[in-house]
Amino acid sequence: MNTVHNAENESFFPVTLMVDSRNCVVVGGGKVATHKTELLLNAGASVTVISPDINERLEEWKDNGWLQHIARSFDPQDDLDGVFLVFAATNNRKVNVEVVEACGQRGILVCSVDKGWVNGDFVTPAVLRKGELTVSVSTGGKSCRRSRLVKNNLSRHIEMVETANLLVLGTSHNYLSIDEREPYHLVGERLERAGRMFNQVWGIHEFMILNTCNRVELMAVASEDEEIDLLLEHIMGFDALEPDSYYRKRGAEAFEHSSFLCAGLMSQMPGEKHVAGQVKNALDDAQNRGWAENMLGQWIDSSLHVSRHIRGETEPMLQNCEIEDLGVDYLKDKRPDLEQQKILVLGTGDVGEGVVSRLLENGENMSCTWGYHRNKPDVEEQEWSDRVDVRNLNDLPELLRDVDVVIAATAGAGYVLHKGHAPFLDQNREILLIDLSMPRTIAPELDGLTSSLKVADLDDLKHWYRRQAIDMARVFEVSRKAVVEHEDMYAQIVNSFQGGNSD
After folding, report:
1. Beta carbons within 10 angstroms of residue 238's beta carbon
2. Which of 95, 307, 383, 481 is the most exposed place for a label (fewest CB within 10 A)?
3. How many CB atoms lie within 10 A of CB 268?
4. Matching CATH topology for 7-124 and 165-319+478-497?
5. Could you name the CATH architecture of 7-124?
């Protein structure tokens, strides 16, 4: 112990010492000694100050019975018996060296406050205490000013954590039409840029961005501060909208919203199940990008748990309908001779695969073409593999020459079908283009471009779907009761980052 170190190459092993009720000594009676004494007292140590003179503050602490004072110079023979830790904190370097050497001979932990710190056993970091939370910042004794700066910034951040709560900020099909909503969806570079901006906002601790065909949402653990909310709205672009064109939900209301969302109640087709997977994927993406960790993960896990309860209560009341069901049902309504239709499905994700599967359930003579971009679907093991022609979208102009129906279920930031494809479409047949994507991947300008072209997007399908057949008021009443039964889960989430038990 107390061997000579090289300050330039020093490496440190951070620990938290338990000094409660242990005998600790501070040699010195000035400003620095006072600071070290205060650190020890705050940690519950039994402190003895050794110095011929002490300042007023140490004198006051002595009078209050918080410390003992030995009014003389340090004596290495008499002052180290039963001592756990020592600070050499005089303004006399020779005395500090003497203290360090004496402690080294006795195997006692020692810290020198001057340049002799490299021959001691530890350095004291900048310390921040908030309730049961203790944070220490150290630059290895090389830049106390930098340590204090970092500590002060952390102090602000911790204060914001203590006021943090759940936040949902978004808009959906219930607030904006598809034309109005589409510009606010965050995909590609817009998603990357928004994420970088959110990362710079003091008071937003973890977040994820959810993009579905019906909505775009920021789900965040964020401090309750109106100015922060306004900044987040600006990044989302919502400051250009009327207040009733988007929603902001906080705390328990945000938890209820996320539970309803995961249960599919907020979808255009209430009860659809894809959204739970979309929420999980958004969380995975946020965690992979470093936007989210345990706090948001606990929130989403709890919401998914509650959503399963909600589903169990409400499924008998809901029509079982996914987005692919809606698309195929709409097609069957518009083209009753389904088996006679030449159908091209674009996209190999969950929705695209669901469309193909449901199409082929409509008779043994039913067939279709399935177009992919990068991920070729593996249909060899499917019983209907001989009724599907799998083609790359590089062949799209050729594929369009002989279609009656195109169903788009792709993901991307641009149009897969646009005005430039019109010449490839047969002008002598009525062609129906169904867009199940968001952002849309079939250009709206194709609708009515010729008398034979018809484009149906999600809003068109929404209006066609007879949602009024479901008593949604009753569904939400039952669902709210399910959320209330799990209100302890919300309390545990908030308690975990506002100062309660957390890992």
Report:
1. 22
2. 383
3. 21
4. no
5. 3-Layer(aba) Sandwich (3.40)
d(CA 424, CA 246): 40
Ranges of each domain in the chain: 7-124, 127-162, 165-319+478-497, 323-464
The size of the chain, in residues, is 503
Q: What are phi and psi of 211, to 5 degrees?
A: -115, 115
Contact call for residues 200 and 291 (beta carbons, < 8 A): no
Tell me, rounded to whole angstroms, the distance of Cα 208 from its chain centroid: 4
> How many C-beta atoms surround the C-beta of residue 155 within 10 A?
14
Residue type, 353: E
Single-letter amino acid, residue 384 = W
Beta-strand runs (E) in 145-246: 164-172, 204-211, 215-223
- Helical axes 487-497 vs 294-314, angle rounded to 10°: 180
